[in-house]
Amino acid sequence: MSSVLLEPSLPRPATRADVDALPPHVVGEILAGELVVSPRPALPHANATSVLGALLNTAFQLGIGGPGGWWIIDEPELSLGIDPRYDPVVPDIAGWRRDATPYLPVAPVHSQVPAWVCEVISPGTQRRDRILKVPFYARAGVRHVWLVDPIAETLEVLRLDGAHYLLAAAYGGAEVVQAEPFQALALPLGALWDRGEPPST
Asked: Which residues of the chain have pLDDT under 50?
């Protein structure tokens, strides 16, 4: 999500009712007790999210050119019961291993901790993603977090080690990578940043 609009300070901690009252064209999360409202993302952000989700979904959910065995979901709403000040939280993409989560819930909210999440960051979301959401994912027990920056053209892979994340790997540019936990896929990073050629003037 490309930028963050903080709702005017509420006289009380934000609640699920505040999220439900938002208009449908925005995404609401509760982070550290505050209601955070994000508009639709800028196109480089949306493109990176769409391409990455498509590549991972094809190989790891559908099992085409990859091993399958996962659910890969764009913008799932997570209500994990970890901290009421972080409920709900919406990652850009998340993944669950099917051996731990054989069925997706019918409800719009997922209460099981994902094995992997990805945040596609932008200048307007750096604080939210790095300072608020990454520590929350560690407390929840998310094993891997990816931070994708489509402007800097980088991928950071974080692996949970105890209560904190270690930087397992960092990649950039047009590298073709086998990044955990999806080492079975040769992922062409350049496809995430490809915006085509600007029109000639």
From this structure: 1-8
Four-way CATH pick for 40-193: 2.60.200.20, 3.90.1570.10, 3.90.660.20, 3.40.50.300: 3.90.1570.10
pTM for this prediction: 0.83
Tell me what pLDDT residue 176 has: 97
Q: What is the pLDDT of residues 25-36, one digit of tens each?
A: 777 888 998 888
The CA-based angle 106-112-113, given to 5 degrees, is 145
Phi, psi of 157, deg, nearest 5: -110, 115
Please give the full DSSP string across the chain, using - where no structure is assigned.
Answer: ----EEPPPPSS---HHHHHTS-TTSEEEEETTEEEEE-PPPHHHHHHHHHHHHHHIIIIIS-SSS---EEEEESPEE--SS-TTS-SB--SEEEEETTT--S--SSSEE-SPPSEEEEE--GGGHIIIIIIIHHHHHHHT-SEEEEEETTTTEEEEEEEETTEEEEEEEEETT-EE--TT-TTS-EETHHHH---PPPP-
